[in-house]
Design a protein that fits this description.
180 residues, 3-stranded antiparallel beta sheet, 6% strand
């Protein structure tokens, strides 16, 4: 008797791992920005990080449901492809536009932490932007979100592939396929 192949569970494990990477990445700093000679400012991603957090939690939850045999696990393909692509596109858009996104947050940080007036802080950050001295570097959180979303999309493609095979060959997989 042939046992069920490990494809669907591998997709679910990847979905859980990628979803957790997205969640942890959304909680970490997405960028470090600063003006030379002043304190670097960690940037957390604004509202987009909360959307990524929700997408990562949903994907990980559906992955766990798929592993446990819950009926919710049927939606693994849709959840992973939708959540992974959405989070990946949002994080990539943030990565491409980091400089503009963090300037206001850096100004507000300098106003609070260094007791600068709004005009002084804007002049400092504006001068740094104009001279090319505003240093913005992606941090581990943003990179984890992008990597996690890639893993989640791969999980979705695997889940889709195995769902297609199950429809053609039945739940046990192809007769000559690998067994576990």
């Amino acid at each position: 008797m042939q046992q069920r192949s490990g494809g669907p569970s591998a997709a679910a494990v990847l979905a859980v791992a990628g979803g957790l990477m997205m969640v942890l990445g959304s909680l970490a700093s997405w960028a470090d920005a600063g003006v030379p000679g002043f304190t670097a400012v960690p940037w957390k991603g604004g509202v987009i990080r909360w959307l990524v957090l929700l997408a990562g939690a949903a994907v990980a939850g559906v992955g766990v449901a798929s592993l446990s045999g819950s009926p919710l696990g049927r939606y693994l393909t849709a959840a992973t492809l939708g959540g992974g692509l959405a989070a990946g596109l949002l994080a990539s858009a943030v990565a491409l536009t980091l400089d503009g996104r963090v300037a206001d947050d850096v100004t507000a940080f300098y106003m609070r932490q260094l007791a600068m007036s709004a005009a002084e802080a804007r002049a400092l950050v504006g001068g740094a932007i104009d001279s090319g001295q505003l240093s913005v570097t992606p941090a581990v959180g943003l990179l984890a979100v992008i990597a996690g979303s890639f893993i989640v999309v791969v999980a979705g493609m695997l889940a889709r592939m195995w769902a297609g095979r199950a429809a053609v060959f039945g739940a046990a997989g192809p007769p000559d396929g690998p067994t576990v």
